[in-house]
Amino acid sequence: MAVDLSQLVKAYDVRGVVPDQWDEPLAELFGAAFVDVVGATAIVTGHDMRPSSPGLSRAFARGAAARGADVVEIGLCSTDQLYYASGALDLPGAMFTASHNPAQYNGIKMCRAGAAPVGQDTGLAEIRALVEGWAETGGIPEIAEKQGSITQRETLEDYAAYLRSLVDLTSIRPLKVVVDAGNGMGGHTVPTVLGGLPLEVVPMYFELDGTFPNHEANPLDPANIVDLQKRVREEGADIGLAFDGDADRCFVVDERGEPVSPSAITALVASRELAKHGGEGVVIHNLITSWSVPEVVEECGGTPVRTRVGHSFIKAEMAKSGAIFGGEHSAHYYFRDFWNADTGMLAALHVLAALGGQQGTLSELVAQYDRYAASGEINSTVDDQAGRLAALKETYQGREGVTLDELDGLTVTAADWWFNVRPSNTEPLLRLNAEARDEPTVNRVRDEVLTIIRG
């Protein structure tokens, strides 16, 4: 029987509905194929709190052991805790999570030793081909002469200690921090990482529950931070933090309950990382982060480098340029000191250190990093992505004082505004992000572009 994994194996990970699209026997094949493709004699695995995660993770481990690899299971963990284990143990790793997707989904994020990503061009296509072939012929073709072992290891304390070694929080003023874990893995990691610091942590939805009974664990959607915003105001807290399902992304709310732009967080953390590295270094930012990011990086003595959207591009550029830090509009933050991997927890520690190291409020602190008016990301469903992009290009090409580039979709830049329109890889959508020096200008640009996109 022919097996088609095209809907399951994405650009950067494996993700689909359980058991409709994949199940434990398929996970076992993925474990065996992963070991073959990365050439591993030992690997590390971890999983989130979804009901299907322990079984899928153990099946993957069985497949890996069948090919002769020893498996270190770290059990319940955040995705960046798995990256920590991959880096600290110098082992390829596999994390079982579907991040913020609904409960019936699950997936695998895979990496080589040192948390180096495995995507379509770096091994995932080969893994898919092996799994499809084996599924057709009835399973793993040859069991290794010597079965690998499966052992358990606790890494949460070591992960927390490592993060806290990178940011000094010992002398900050006391802060009241509301944390919304969204019933995801932040409920597992936050108490250990923030425990013992001069922080009064007010927990929200720390109970691990992969059915997400309170709200979707995706803080980028404004609907999912409403509870946090309200609680910050009620508590008179200094800051609110929201983590996504696998706790690798962190979203920040100020003392007024207002969202802080991930671009402003990128600029703030970049300034701190540059100071830590002697005022020199490359900082990566994707092309839809604010103008304020490269400005702040240059003001602090660093070199900003602009990339396409997507963690594979950021991580590749981090490795190539030796960058000390990278940030995305989606609240993914990447650190050279963390094997170039993304960790929202480390970004949160930087924000807490910056806030607690001075007397002002968070809104006052981030004002210097939040300099422009932005549209936010606006999605439009279209029949013809290429045709609408061509119409935009035709409209703005040759317009005086305007430049165009096609690094990722179409970016149009003028003296006091810019916009980017990118096609979605998975849906018939065009995504618009615009920014300007003032609100009326960004609204005018937004409306003009949307008129062309939506016809």
TrEMBL record:
Cofactors named for this entry: Mg(2+)
Domain of life: Bacteria
Domain Alpha-D-phosphohexomutase C-terminal: 377-450
Entry-linked InterPro entries: A-D-PHexomutase_a/b/a-I, A-D-PHexomutase_a/b/a-I/II/III, A-D-PHexomutase_a/b/a-II, A-D-PHexomutase_a/b/a-III, A-D-PHexomutase_C, A-D-PHexomutase_C_sf, Alpha-D-phosphohexomutase_SF
Keyword Metal-binding annotated: yes
Keyword annotations of the record: Isomerase, Magnesium, Metal-binding, Phosphoprotein
Domain called Alpha-D-phosphohexomutase alpha/beta/alpha: residue spans: 7-132, 158-257, 264-372
Family: Belongs to the phosphohexose mutase family.
Name by which UniProt lists this protein: Phosphomannomutase/phosphoglucomutase
